[in-house]
Amino acid sequence: MSMAGLFEFARKDVNLQEKLPTKLLRDLHSNFILQYERDKNGYHYIMAEHLRVSGIYWCANAMDLTKQLSQMSADEIVQYVLSCRNSDGGYGPAPGHDSHLLHTLCAVQTLIIFDSLQKADSNSICDYVKKLQNEDGSFCGDLSGEVDTRFTLCSLATCHLLGNLSTLNIDTAVNFLLRCYNSDGGFGTRPGSESHAGQVYCCVGALAIAGRLDSISRDRTAEWLAFRQCDSGGLNGRPEKLPDVCYSWWVLASLAILGRLDFIDQSAMKKFIYACQDDETGGFADRPGDCADPFHTVFGIAALSLFGDDSLEQVDPIFCMSKKCLGSKQIEMF
Ligand code: GRG
């Protein structure tokens, strides 16, 4: 391949056409989200059983951040989430499914959003999380043994939100995270793995919860994150990949935690996020013109909230929940 060809390859991007949305279509998004709550016999609801509790958190959080949570059936949702609890103390994605850290954190986040955390057994949840910590400080997501820095954030966030962070071995957890810190400033899933923006969010968030952000170079990490911005204004997760609206959250929230939001071109980024909205059905897609879904919807909305928008609740960059519902559980960062 010629040098020119290589250069083109490195600049993978999308084109923003003129007819794409240029402002936040807030009220359309609540209709989009509520259809997932209403249509329980529909294809999407049935096919999503393996990730339902995560899906419930994405939907409830999107409704909370757009100040429309009161339109949801709070009691029914809380009862459903509680019914996903297993005897090991963790939560699965749906009743009868095995526990997993991803769903356990989402269950806790959802209960907080609906002001129902007192209905959960905090001690048994923390015991469940503690058992998944390995000697080297890393965490498995469940009994299958997969290790990933995502699970470090899930563990520290869950125990912090339940007011029992000290049940975990924080020193070894931090040591493990630092072994996943790469010389380019990013973090990977495990020591030696490629830097990825999703993993940077998990590691930076976990270090913030641990009170150990001083262990890394904020500027070096923020520079790696800033390089994720493409000409369209959208952000990718790693070099030579297409932008995706969810990285607007993973990257921007990491920069917010590091106190480096100004490293990015904010107006170009907003333009890309607005363009990912579906102006007929509501919801956000990964990229302009693709099919909208609740995952990209919540992270698109959360990213816009970080820029400051009066029609949205202010979001907390570590926990991806409104500051209003977190109250005193927020972490003082500076
Ligand atoms: C929100 C508090 C809170 C916690 C969530 C599970 C988790 C903790 C974070 C996930 C972070 C992460 C790894 C995000 C990336 C998700 C994603 C779109 C992965 C796709 O990866 P590839 O390799 O896509 O298919 P690319 O974009 O690299 O081509």
Can you tell me about this structure?
- By secondary structure, the protein is mainly alpha-helical.
- The protein has a single domain (20-326), classed as Glycosyltransferase, CATH 1.50.10.20.
- The chain contains 15 helices and 2 strands.
- It has helices at 3-10, 26-38, 43-47, 52-65, 74-82, 101-113, 122-131, 149-161, 170-179, 197-210, 218-226, 245-258, 266-275, 294-306, 323-326; strands at 315-316, 321-322.
- It has a two-stranded antiparallel sheet.
- A hairpin with a 4-residue loop joins strand 1 (315-316) and strand 2 (321-322).
- The site of geranylgeranyl diphosphate has 17 residues, from helix 8, helix 10 and helix 12.
Count up the domains. 1
Class computed from helices, strands and strand pairing: mainly alpha
- Under CATH, the topology is which? Glycosyltransferase
Tell me the number of helical segments per DSSP (H or I, 4 or more residues long): 15
CATH architecture: Alpha/alpha barrel
List how many beta strands DSSP finds.
2
Q: What small molecules does this complex bind?
A: geranylgeranyl diphosphate
Question: What distinguishing features does this structure have?
Answer:
single chain; mainly alpha; Glycosyltransferase; two-stranded antiparallel ribbon; globular; binds geranylgeranyl diphosphate; metal-binding
Helices and strands in order:
Layout: H1 3-10, H2 26-38, H3 43-47, H4 52-65, H5 74-82, H6 101-113, H7 122-131, H8 149-161, H9 170-179, H10 197-210, H11 218-226, H12 245-258, H13 266-275, H14 294-306, E1 315-316, E2 321-322, H15 323-326
Antiparallel strand pairs: 1-2
This protein binds geranylgeranyl diphosphate (GRG).
Geranylgeranyl diphosphate binds at residues 102, 150, 153-154, 157, 198-199, 201-202, 237-238, 241, 244, 246, 250, 319-320.
GO molecular function, one term: metal ion binding
Subunit structure: Heterodimer of an alpha and a beta subunit.
Cofactor: Zn(2+)
